[in-house]
Amino acid sequence: MEKRTDKNSYTLLFAIGMVLIVGSLLAFTASALKPNIEENKRIEKQQNILYAMGVNDNDEGSAVFVGTDVVVDEFSKYIKKQIVIQGDKITEDANAYLIDIKKEQTAAKDASYQRKLPLFIGEKDGKTFYIAPIRGKGLWDAIWAYVAMDADMVVQGAYFDHKGETPGLGANIKQRFFMDDFIGEHLKSNGNFTGITVAKGNADPTNKDKTDNEVDAIAGSTITGDGVTAMLKTELKLYVPYFKTLKTN
Q1: Is the distance from CB of 170 to CB of 138 less than 8 angstroms?
Q2: Are the CB atoms for 43 and 71 separated by under 8 Å?
Q3: pTM for this structure?
Q4: DSSP E strands: which ranges in 87-219?
Q5: What phi and psi values does residue 223 have, to the nearest 5 degrees?
Q6: Residue pLDDT, tens place only, 62-79
């Protein structure tokens, strides 16, 4: 006599039941963890912004963020203003750091949409920093950065990161030896925005010339370097009109 559990219908119903149970559990877990995930993203963004302007716990060779236990206080201490630039309109927004750069890039493909550009204005040791979040494309996936500049668009610090670049090669954009090279680099040349090129044939490998608009490339990561170059040039150029207003005020 055939057992009920031997029937194909039983196997199918059992599989459907398990899918429903597991799916419900995953949905419940995702919903329960969502506040924690969002909080971690918020903290990470604040750490990135602070890192770019030199508020970090770096030791001699490693890139180290300020701790999660102090980041909220440090962010309030050093970031004096957050603004959103949208065309000719500039508004203050205490939550500008939560703007999704990826979504803004996508929306801007529609020529009728004016993209929102967040900018964070910080003060440290008597200096004013303007920190811009930017996003681009590396070899395998997204790359992004927070670039701190002075009023002349001279880089004061930067933090780079990636989603899936090759370990030991393109992934090294988030290592200090690469990021620190950008400090002091000029984004302008003869008063015009030029950007910075990650150059494989850079004639200044020790990076002493800060006005050549170049930094030395990472060996074996040409496409990632090209992505960084494109990101710096296309994304930071969007902020040029704002920096021009700083000279007229």
Answers
A1: yes
A2: yes
A3: 0.84
A4: 89-92, 117-124, 127-137, 142-149, 155-162, 188-189, 192-193, 197-199, 214-216
A5: -70, -40
A6: 899 999 999 999 999 999
